[in-house]
Amino acid sequence: MASKPLLHPRNQHRDGYDFARLLADSPDLAGFTTLNPSGGTTIDFKDAKAVRALNRALLKTHYGIDDWDIPETYLCPPIPGRVDYIHYLADLLAEADRGRIPRGPGIRALDIGTGASLVYPLTGLREYGWSFTGADIDPVSIASAQAICERNALPIELRQQPDAENIFKGLLTADDLFHVTLCNPPFHASMEEAQKGTERKWRNLGHGKSKALNFGGQNAELWCEGGEIGFLSTMITQSRIYAEQCLWFTSLVSKKYNLRVLERLLRDARVDEMRMVEMAQGQKTSRFIAWTYYPRRQRSL
């Protein structure tokens, strides 16, 4: 696969996929490989099983996760772009320690909507050794994440959010302290909108119409009432309640035009500082917002 030099400098996948190494560690991946027009090894990214097999191999070779899988139709996130978020969060936290990249279990991270794949805690644990808590509203996702942890003896805490109207409420206790929260929120405002987005992506992949996508996704992973803005508005509002319990609150933002509204909401929340961090990933640019209630002089790890 072609290199991705725009990924974060610490991202292991900047040089593309090393299929020779992946196949040596995961021979089952061979059944999904093919040759691209230039004669290099690749997979059919329109094939959901191939994408899952590639993720399984990547997690084993690069992150030491020997036994990973997710239920069919659940979101199967692309590893290189997801781990970029982790690396940029490490840079953000490093500002509180004179630029030193934070490592070890003393750093506590909360993943909102961790999903069946558990991708952020898995990669963040292996890259930096942070202590992760993964939260989700979907019991199947929590069960899948728990099974991954048990099969690989991973010290990741999992919590189920009991109320779809809440994000931090009902999830955090008075004793919880986190250095950072992260989130990949639902993009769409309805199932119909999510379906249209799925069909558009499928057409862009040159595969015609379809009701499924290679990367999958359940309802709670793809849409919620009010869409991305609705979800993040609730997150920002509730973050004020727990302002002293987290150094940086963060979330991916899929739609750039939402940033202006989010900036206004953060000003209304009286945060001390807000950031918008762009992450260039080939032809696509993704981004996350970050905000803190701590004055700079009080920020420490």
TrEMBL record:
<comment type="similarity">
    <text>Belongs to the methyltransferase superfamily. METTL16/RlmF family.</text>
</comment>
<keyword id="KW-0949">S-adenosyl-L-methionine</keyword>
<dbReference type="InterPro" id="IPR016909">
    <property type="entry name" value="rRNA_lsu_MeTfrase_F"/>
</dbReference>
<dbReference type="InterPro" id="IPR029063">
    <property type="entry name" value="SAM-dependent_MTases_sf"/>
</dbReference>
<comment type="function">
    <text>Specifically methylates the adenine in position 1618 of 23S rRNA.</text>
</comment>
<dbReference type="GO" id="GO:0052907">
    <property type="term" value="F:23S rRNA (adenine(1618)-N(6))-methyltransferase activity"/>
</dbReference>
<keyword id="KW-0698">rRNA processing</keyword>
<keyword id="KW-0963">Cytoplasm</keyword>
<protein>
    <recommendedName>
        <fullName>Ribosomal RNA large subunit methyltransferase F</fullName>
        <ecNumber>2.1.1.181</ecNumber>
    </recommendedName>
</protein>
<dbReference type="InterPro" id="IPR010286">
    <property type="entry name" value="METTL16/RlmF"/>
</dbReference>
<dbReference type="Pfam" id="PF05971">
    <property type="entry name" value="Methyltransf_10"/>
</dbReference>
<keyword id="KW-0489">Methyltransferase</keyword>
<keyword id="KW-0808">Transferase</keyword>
